Amino acid sequence: MKKIVLIAFVLFFQYSFSKPITETQKLAAVCKVWGFLKYYHPNVADGSKNWDDQLFQILSQIEETKTAEEFSTVVEKWIVSFGEIKSYKSIKSSKTVEYFDKNFDLSWISNSEIFSKSLSKKLKFIEKNRIQGKQFYIVFTEDDTKGVFEEISNEINYPDFKWTDKNLRLLALFRYWNYIEYFFPYKYQMDQHWDKTLENLLPKFSDAKSELDFHLAMKEIIVNLNDSHAFFNTRVTFLNFGDKFIPFEAKIIDDKAVVIRSKNDSLTKIDDIKIGDVITKVDGRTIAEILNEKTKYIEGSNTPTVLRNSNIAVFNGNSKNAEIEFVRDEKTTVKSINRYLYKDLKLKPKVEKEKWKILEGNIGYVDFTSLMYDDVPVLIENLKDTKAVIFDNRCYPNGVMSPIAEWINSKEKDFARFTYPDVTYPGKFVWSKNFSIGSENPNHYKGKVIVLVDENTQSHAEFTAMSIQTAPDVTIIGSQTAGADGNVCSFQIVKGFYTAFSGIGVFYPNKKETQRIGIVPDIEVKPTILGIQQGRDEILERAILFVKDGK
Fold this sequence. Notes:
6-stranded mixed β-sheet; 35% helix; flat
């Protein structure tokens, strides 16, 4: 009996220190360690090593490891090769720093399933004694004239990048994953944990069978940010969805595509497409079926924005024709329509809208699409005596928030607060002070203020809405906005792989979130199929009703 117990103990002991490790586990661990050292290790984050080449070396070295113990031994030896790290005593800053820690997570360092105690201890030592000088691969700048921005820097572009090279595919993934891990302010808000995204998508990168597989994997990981500022489009992904376009724009409502706008009137006339036509199928598939398959390739912070961005996924193709099933006047019809190369669409010019006007009932209406900064003084003079002003913010404004906020407020007011990446402690973010807008103004506007919003209200438009919300009598009317506030960090992952993400966190002064949630309407109104068919602007109609009835 004692012999059996002893054998069992020996087997348990051996297993505990010789745990098998999968290919995905190895690659995920290397991704995390490589990125961590890139931004933390004093002898690496200073740019003194060819860090891409070091990745290729460690990938080769861990290839034959079969157990967690073997893996840890190889990785630890690799880290030791970068030289000694001197311990330092942190100097207490005289400046009070308030950290935002929802993104910060180095708990993987203590994963005993993968890392030995010795390796975990070494990684924790590096965290404690991280680089104190200038970061080589990331630059964060606060500039009074240019504003706040972060920049991915000093990366090799690989102009001859070959998708067939597994190491280069993994490099692209590992670079991007770590950019987000340490410098994306909204990592904590993703639908799926960022670690899980890495584990799920790693096989698609390591085992890609075609260039398309690789590019779609890249697009899929970027979509996982749930960020309307994020994008990834290459010639390969473009051709996958199709290089030919329909000559109209549709809005997805209740799993149907409703025609809302013509891009070229003569082309839509050829196929007899009318505003309000309700398309239920494209090439024999329902809109819901198409979206279920392709949503993982459509960027957006929330569902309305994903649907806003879905026209290409739903309608594009490589053939010159598409078969649609649609409903008009309660009659269902199936017919073929034309698709065109983008250059042949010959988009009709945008109609210049009135910058402002006075509606019936002495209600001012301002179109932020057309209004420019220099127009504001004349606008104020024309609308100062109106009963209410409706600001149509279903667009991208032209930098008019400051003079508008000064007009509608009697004094300076706080309206926003930011989180900035702390490049001295990657993964952590620091709260800014409150930012204010407006000034002392006894002649401020005294009427009701209304802001119209929808899924086209994004980024600066959302920031503009926040600034207008400081007014004493303001109401937001419409539907969920795009939920991507703040500046945009744009960069190349490798040559030709352009992308971006929201670079700083934007919150209300009380730390209430705006990312993904957007600017929440006080009165929710969504366009209906019937309203579109009747040519009505239901959001504007609701705003006018609110001014007249007060509810």
